[in-house]
Amino acid sequence: MRNTATDVIVGAKIIVRAVILANLTLPNRRLRKHAMDKLGKIEASIKEFGFLVPLVVDRDQQIVVGELRYQAALNLGMKTAPAVLAHHLTPAQVRAYRIADNKLAEGSVWLPDALGDEFKHLLTLDFDLDKTGFGPAAIEGILSKQLAGENAPVRVAEASHLRRRDLFSAASHWVMCGDSLIAEDVDRLMRGEKADFSINDLPYNAKIEGNVSTRKGASAHREFEMASGEMTGVEFYAFLLAVMEMLKRHCRSGAIIEAFMDWRNVHRLIAAAEAAGLDYLNLICWVKNAAGMGSLFRSQHELVGVFRAPGAAHTNRVQLGKHGRQRTNVWAYDGYSGFGSERKKDLDRHPTPKNVQMIQDAILDVTGKGDIVLDLFGGGGTTMIAAERAGRSSRLMEIDPRYCEATLRRFQEETGQAARRQAYRSVSSSYRTSLRDLRPQSLARHMQDTLTLPAVDAHPVR
């Protein structure tokens, strides 16, 4: 056999040559069935890195190894590709090597910590991880396990220098000290953007003192600014309806909207969401590691309504566990009713803190990299921290300046990135939402004669 200028001689028998793809043939029998998306991934890899792994062809120019790479090259319009000329193999060796090459690749597993470190390093270089051949859900499943640690909580100050309508940006996140029921406030926070997902720790219309917290004196938690036990059942339904209408307006079609609620008012939450035109998809039960307060039965769970903004299909990154994300409508995460080392610090920040990993997992379920996550009841900033860890961009509204300040301080301690105050600009009249008056008392006045709900009024836990 005569060597050509395009030959690369490797050892005494191995030659790598640029072969004409049109002259090659495929084996008569296919040994493996490949996933439907594998060919597209190989094409993307070749476009990004080049054709770095040669084909293997026998003396009859039949492909021994590399059938998918051959097909990908044809799809990309390539005329030639590098190939190892296995002319020294007998027909029996060719058959055996085809089997061996496919089988030997099965004898290894990924080391998730090392792989996660590589992914994180590539992210710092702004490299598209999809080009590694891993799907987005698989990548995030690996990264989320490395970012699951809790951050050091920040204590809420007795007073704050922040004022209502203060707006801050920090990295890709925006936080506003404002009212979630005032259309202009939410317009200013969103700046014309639509959220891809929303998760909200709604007030439950229950007093903090005696129901949620037993703290007294200087360490006692203040009541929430709204829906802290002062509303009637009709008023609280109107409040929830106002929230759901606001969320629907500021979420894109198909966006998932999740809202925490207790057992006393979950029927009102579902009724309000459906009245606002949202699709009711599921009800999740967050089971905590320890029970909280209660009477006959101490409460050890919270409920999460799962809704969808109509008009499009929702994003599904779970895919029934296909990429290792085994998710159900029962969430088992630590709560803050036990006696863990971080319990006091978290409760210093907020009377009803949520588990960061739980919120991060919820974000990963239904969003992609860079998507916008909206939380109209920002509290102590858990959604902002979870979104940052997941590589998402958050929008938080919080009416209490003390919690806004705690959120910004917490984010800075977590990331080292300081928030920047944004200059106030009134939203133009042409840009304002056209929602009617969303204050719950106003809505309630119009509902008294027509509203039909189960006869369960808001009441404190006994």
Please describe what this structure looks like:
The protein has 462 residues and is of the alpha/beta class. It folds into two domains: 8-104, Conserved hypothetical protein from pyrococcus furiosus pfu- 392566-001, ParB domain (Alpha-Beta Complex); 147-447, 3-Layer(aba) Sandwich (Rossmann fold), CATH 3.40.50.150. Helix content is 31%, strand content 18%. The protein is built from 13 helices and 15 strands. The chain has helices spanning 38-49, 67-75, 91-104, 112-124, 136-146, 183-190, 233-250, 266-275, 343-349, 356-366, 382-390, 401-415, 440-447, and strands at 8-10, 14-20, 55-57, 63-65, 80-85, 167-170, 173-177, 195-201, 251-261, 279-287, 301-308, 330-332, 372-375, 393-398, 420-422. The strands form two sheets. Strands 12-10-11-9-8-13-14-7-6-15 form a ten-stranded mixed beta sheet, with helices on both faces. The chain has a five-stranded mixed beta sheet with strand order 1-2-5-3-4. Strand 8 (195-201), helix 7 (233-250) and strand 9 form a beta-alpha-beta unit. The protein is elongated and about 85 Å long.
- Give the end-to-end Cα distance, rounded to a whole number of Å: 93 Å
Structural class: alpha/beta
* C-alpha geometry: elongated
Number of strands: 15
How many discrete structural domains? 2
**Biggest sheet: strand arrangement:** 12-10-11-9-8-13-14-7-6-15
The CATH topology of the largest domain is: Rossmann fold
Give the % helix: 25-40%
SSE sequence, one letter per element: EEHEEHEHHHEEHEHEHEEEHHEHEHEH
Can you tell me the CATH architecture of the largest domain?
A: 3-Layer(aba) Sandwich
| CATH class group of the largest domain | Alpha Beta
- CATH superfamily of the largest domain, by name, is Vaccinia Virus protein VP39
Rounded to an integer, what's the Rg over CA atoms? 29 Å
Tell me, rounded to a whole number, the average pLDDT: 81
